[in-house]
Write a structure and sequence with these properties.
Strand content: over 45%
Mean pLDDT: 84
Structural class: mainly beta
Number of strands: 4
Radius of gyration: 16 Å
Largest sheet: 4 strands, antiparallel
Distance between the termini: 20 Å
Amino acid sequence: MYCIYHTPPLNTHWFNIACSFADPVYQNKRLEVLSNIWAKYRNFDFNDANLSTDAEHYSEITGFNNNTFRHRWSITHSGDAFWLLRGEVRRDF
């Protein structure tokens, strides 16, 4: 449910290798709430069917009691034609 992916227009097939979602945790005398998610995906038909392409994403959000938040996000792409991949974060509100 939390580690979803979509098939890009090139009709390649990505597989969820690993996923870790942390339930929200209160910090700093309950003035902050932190949640994070990590996922790893693999593809075998991106460019060369004999090689794999990997994508690893990490996202962390901390909400503060003053109506602000901090978002940290990182990506690691490796393997066959990894330089063609891109990652982005879109605000959904």
